[in-house]
Amino acid sequence: LLDGNSVRIANPIVAQNLGIAMIPQEFNLINSLRVYENIFLGRELRSGGLLSRGRMQATARELFATLKANVPADALVADLSVAQKQMVEIAKAMSQDSRVLIMDEPTTVLARAEIDTLFAVMREFTAKGGAIFFVSHKLREVREICDRVLILRDGNFISVDPIEALDEHEMARRMVGRDL
Predict the structure, then answer these.
(1) Cα dist. 179→148, 153, 175, 176 in Å?
(2) Four-residue CA torsion sign, 169, 170, 175, 180
(3) Strand partners, 51
């Protein structure tokens, strides 16, 4: 359901058109392209039919400023660190003016300061009415950033609860199906 209406999402383009963006666990970047080219791949900004490289670079710089990320917009992706590549994936999702973000283990390669900035951006996104699916095994982070927790085990629905209702031990117990 999206806005109370049943939707069928057949592919990523349909999801994007519905305002849904995904930040995958595995990078979906082209190493031989520049950062800004990856961010706008398939959605290039144009002016008079020509690529507007300057606008794409400026927008990429603005996104990285919001994320407080040190990622040069014109760098080759191949030259970036793993954490910088994660920030490119996050910037790419943010550039789509999405209403729903699906984030699959986005903090795995980030330092604590980068995580704090990402969480601040996430809080701002939800305060403006956006929704985030935050997929993580880092239960402290789940408690820190989430309002509700949905638990799956082997791909099967187990429960959904307000975050205050479950401590980390109970989340883990439900995830594995037994006490640890």
Answers:
(1) 22, 14, 10, 8
(2) positive
(3) 46
Please provide residue 42's backbone torsions phi and psi, each rounded to the nearest 5 degrees: 85, -5
Q: Measured between alpha carbons, how far is 45 from 6 in angstroms, rounded to an integer?
A: 31
pLDDT tens for residues 41-85? Answer: 989 989 988 999 999 999 999 999 988 889 999 999 999 988 899
Q: Parallel, antiparallel, or unpaired: how do β-strands 131-135 and 148-153 relate?
A: unpaired
b/e map 14-41, b = 16+ CB within 10 Å: ebbeebbbbbebebebeeeebbbbbbbe
pLDDT at 121 (0 to 100): 86
